[in-house]
Amino acid sequence: FYPYKSPKTCCYDCCMRCLGGVPYCSLVATLLCFSGIALFCGCGHQALTETERIIETYFARNLQDYITLAYIIQYFQYVIYGLASFFFLYCIVLLAEGFYTTSAAKQTFGEFRSTMCGRCLSSSFIVMTYVLAVLWLLVFALSALPVYFFYNMDATCHTIDVLTETPASINQLCVDARQYGLLPWNAVPGKACGMTLSNVCKTREYQMTYNLYIAAFAGAGITLMALLTYTVSTTYNFAVLRYLGRKGIGARC
Predict the structure, then answer these.
(1) Considering only CA atoms, which of 98, 109, 125 is closest in space to residue 240?
(2) Can you name the residues that pair with 60 across neighbouring β-strands?
């Protein structure tokens, strides 16, 4: 004899079981990763294009002076395409792994079998995610370099605007792209000084590029946060599989 349940009660129980089977930690990390990678790749790609245009227009007159920089920018743009594709697939895989190993899924789909293959996959995801987090920490640090360059440029332009009444001292305030390794030392002019630099800072290209680099830097930080969240999530999932394996309900694959 089974107690009678109304259709509303059965529907409510089913919804609660489905919601309980969602790996919220992995889901939040996936959303963070998608948004962070979209910011980093989209804004970073466009910022690199605008940077090449600014260097070509205001800091270099000869094509040979910035041809190396143009090749490097093109290379990084191809790397961005690969990063976007890789992280999209990797986040989907980690989210699927989170659904597979969540403890609530055991109650939803019946007896959970913790296989040796499942435990090996979970441990592999832990190592891969940890390595990616360490590597992405380096990417996060490197993405701060163009922000630092444009910040210094903006600060110099602000100083020039304050000292407009003394032209002699203004001409001594410069931003040299050669000092940052963007151009070779024999590039002409290689730098912008005084009112020329101030006019560069007032252009639409400069303002947009500066904002794009800030957005890319923020996207790198969000992605790093997502990878750290994934590390915690995959470690917990592996602990769940180890616990279920010790109970003897697992089967080797």
Answers:
(1) 98
(2) 189
Angle CA 159–164–168, to nearest 5: 95
Distance between CA 218 and CA 37 in Å, rounded? Answer: 10
- Rg, the chain, Cα only: 27
* Tokens representing residue 80 in the block: 């961005």
Evaluate the CA torsion angle 116, 121, 125, 131 in order and state its sign: positive
Answer yes or no: is pLDDT of 6 > 60. Answer: no
pLDDT for the residue 244: 59
The tens digit of pLDDT for each residue in 77-91 reads 999 999 999 999 999
pLDDT of residue 206: 94
Specify which residues 176 forms β-bridges with.
191
DSSP H helix total and E strand total for the chain: 9, 2
pLDDT for the residue 10: 57
Instruction: Write the DSSP assignment of 75-100 as a string of letters.
Output: HHHHHHHHHHHHHHHHHHHHHHHHHH
Higher-scoring residue by pLDDT: 250, 190 = 190
In tens, the pLDDT along 45-70 reads 999 999 999 998 888 888 888 888 89
Cα–Cα distance for residue pair 38/124, rounded to 1 Å: 26
Closest residue by Cα to residue 48 from 175, 137, 149, 179: 149
Q: At what angle do helices 204-246 and 63-101 cross, to 10 degrees?
A: 30
Strands (E), the chain: 174-176, 191-193
